[in-house]
Amino acid sequence: MADDALIVIDVQNDFCPGGALAVENGDQVVPVINGLIKRFDHVVLTQDWHPAGHSSFASQHAGHDPFTAIEMPYGEQTLWPDHCVQGSEGAAFHAGLDWTRAELVVRKGFRKAIDSYSAFFENDHTTPTGLGGYLKERGISKVTMAGLATDFCVGFSALDAVKLGLSVTVVMEGCRAIDLGGSLAAMTEKMRAAGVSLV
After folding, report:
1. Which tens digit of pLDDT belongs to each residue from 164-190?
2. Of 60, 119, 52, nearest in space to 86 by CA
């Protein structure tokens, strides 16, 4: 499938059990994704890659707890525990992930003043990561996604991929959610409405 790519979203230690921002049963996506990787000619990985003291960390905002939201210049931002700090063990890919065949690793969230959920754009929804251009140049028009977390980085990546004119499938068995105040149901509905195929 020359025009089809698998995009594996943020399967990193900090999002797996025991990590700083653990998604419940996050490690259960690993065998599912390893099976998908074997079936695709093109594999791209994303990696949350924050500098220490990133503006999305609750620790940088006195009086604000993790999982609360504040207004940033680019809009509402959920504040997180410190996670996926560049070069840390938490930012590394899960040891069980068979990612050696990946053609590209897109690092996101490395600008200190802005977070990046999507594989395609920063949270201002205008600053591109370069992934859209890469896929276009490679002639890839269809993407399949799996990873962490369904209701944040996977969901926003899927919505942005549709906006860029890509055909998008999300393998739900290969995802797990944070589910913050109903965020999973809300994101699932948004993806369906946008024309994302949920399988």
Report:
1. 999 999 999 999 999 989 999 999 999
2. 52
Rounded to 10 deg, the angle between the 183-194 and 155-163 helix axes is 20
Q: Could you give the residue numbers annotated as active site?
A: 10, 108, 153
Q: Which amino acid is at 116?
A: S
Of 141, 177, 132, 187, which is closest to residue 26 (Cα–Cα)? 177
pTM tops 0.85, yes or no:
yes
The answer to whether the CB of 131 falls within 8 A of the CB of 163 is: no
What is the arithmetic mean of pLDDT over 30-46?
97
Q: State how far the Cα of 151 lies from the Cα of 31, in Å rounded to an integer.
A: 20
- pLDDT, tens digit, 9 for 90 and up, residues 66-118: 999 999 999 999 999 999 999 999 999 999 999 999 999 999 999 999 999 99
CB 9, CB 147: distance < 8 Å:
yes
Beta carbons of 176 and 30 less than 8 angstroms apart: no
| Amino acid at position 49, single letter | W
Q: How far is CA 140 from CA 26, 81, 136, 166, 168, in A?
A: 28, 35, 6, 8, 11
